[in-house]
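Reopening: Putative glutamate--cysteine ligase 2 still failing for me.
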Amino acid sequence: MPGVERSAETIGVEEEFLLIDPASGRTAARADAVLSVLENTQLTRFHAELAATQVEAATGPCTELAELRVALCDARERVRAAARQHGLRVVSAGLPERGAEQPVGGRGKRFREILIRYAGVVADYEACACQVHIGVPDRKTGVAVLNHLRPWLPTLLALSASSPHRGYASWRMVLQSRFPGSGVPPWFSSADDYDAHIRRMVECGTLVDESMTFWLARLSRRWPTVEFRAADAVPDVEMAVLQAALSRALVRTAITDIAAGREAPRVRDDVCAAAIWTAARHGLDGPAVHVQHECQVPATKLVNALVEHVAAALEETGDTDTLEKLP
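Support: Ran it again with your exact input. Result attached.
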């Protein structure tokens, strides 16, 4: 907040990696084998994902980007080393070039329920994301922050697009849009409104449980964080750090606006959907949708608008130099 010293919000990053068989070039359903030789550290924990061709590395909460960078580099090297022990290589990308014939199978009760519930939507789903958790004081603040994030999620997607296929910059987002409720989250009036919406979708049968949503930003059920889920898996650590820096700056800016009584812009759901589709189609190499003006603009113009929007927050946390990594 202007004139008030405030500690930096914590950051955690979850990166999903594809396991590749060098001989065939296809993804390999060997996650359990790779995870068996991966040991959690103080910096990072390693997890299975829905597809047996993927491994996830999740950092602990960091307060400085330098600390986060060390954790991400360490995690990537550990995953690569574990994969090499099984004759595999690791790729960080939104989608594989050549997927496995059967990447998803019965891997625990909840995963089996997801496979049954969504059937063909997940049968060949190997999409990978770079997910960022930013600490917030409480769920009430977190929901208000989500409202402020809605206009900017398409730009975070465009910046990260790394799954080119069939003319799209992010085919991962096209695949994700097949799930019910995917995209920019709705506007919520309160934490109770947010929780009631999720319970309603569980009762309607479109979500397996209250821990699941397909929105591109949501509240974590386990931690006091806002979780960004817009970005494709990114090829290098610096792009992951950039996503983390921009995400924290967006949250910090939102909290400042909330404290000042500035309400988030009421952008239309259908225009947000158009903006996500356009970001998936073009990435940064074409038009984007300005959700407040409800028209097309160059994608780079929205990147510049995002930078201007969060400039003060980046300066407060000493993260302005991360903008050098912008395309």
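The chain has one domain: 11-316. If you still see a failure, please send the error message rather than a screenshot.
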